[in-house]
Design a protein that fits this description.
Largest sheet: 5 strands, parallel
Shape: elongated
Order of helices and strands: EHEHEHEHEHHHHH
Strand order of the largest sheet: 2-1-3-4-5
Helix content: 40-55%
Structural class: alpha/beta
Strand content: 5-15%
Distance between the termini: 29 Å
Number of strands: 5
Radius of gyration: 23 Å
Length: 211
């Protein structure tokens, strides 16, 4: 079974203003967060340990790849990174676009410490939830891979609420054979009861939708 590792979740500050980067890093660290700073989107994308990323605070106007383009890259990654925008130039059209594509918040400089830290807490919580959901999907995929095609058909019938005799009729096999397959499914899926099996399937859920 897949287990979500307890990782060091880092808040990344991406801003081309050195003073802003350092001020935000001090605030974050004083509030108990691990923080790293980057002067450009390219520097952030080239960081050595992307798996530790908890969330990112992005300036909208960056040299090279701008904030919105960086957000698009992060939202479409295998492990999406929650984004908070912090910019000195308010732009209604860009703020709407940022929020529609999943930004946690769109704040303007100078920002109040409480507002920023509240947004960071929300972003980290969302990121943790996304990791847990991905772990559940990976766990389910690993268990399903153990099933034979026939066992998968029986599983589909069981999860749909069908009785053994209904599954047997639909699949053209003896009811006792369905019982054998069903027992194998329960063992391979490591489910102690029908309710546990259904919970596992529901927790795995459909693949994550990318905007």
């Amino acid at each position: 079974m897949t287990v979500v590792a307890s990782a060091r979740r880092v808040v990344h500050v991406v801003d081309d203003d050195r003073a802003v980067r350092h001020a935000l890093a001090r605030l974050l660290r004083a509030s108990g967060h691990a923080a790293e700073t980057h002067a450009s989107a390219e520097a952030f994308l080239d960081r050595p340990d992307p798996a530790s990323t908890g969330c990112a605070i992005l300036d909208m106007h960056l040299p090279g790849i701008d904030g919105l383009d960086l957000q698009s890259v992060l939202m479409n990654a295998d492990n999406p990174c929650p984004v908070i925008f912090l910019t000195g130039r308010g732009d209604v059209e860009k703020s709407v676009r940022a929020m529609k594509t999943g930004a946690i918040d769109f704040l303007t400089k100078p920002v109040q410490a409480a507002a920023l830290l509240t947004a960071v807490d929300r972003a980290l919580a969302q990121g943790a939830a996304a990791l847990a959901e991905q772990a559940a999907r990976d766990d389910l995929a690993g268990r399903l891979a153990l099933l034979t095609p026939r066992e998968r058909e029986v599983l589909d019938g069981v999860v749909a609420g069908q009785l053994n005799k209904q599954i047997a009729h639909d699949l053209g096999m003896a009811e006792k054979t369905v019982k054998v397959h069903r027992a194998r499914v329960m063992r391979k899926m490591d489910a102690g009861s029908l309710a546990a099996l259904v919970r596992l399937i529901v927790a795995g859920g459909p693949p994550r939708h990318r905007p």
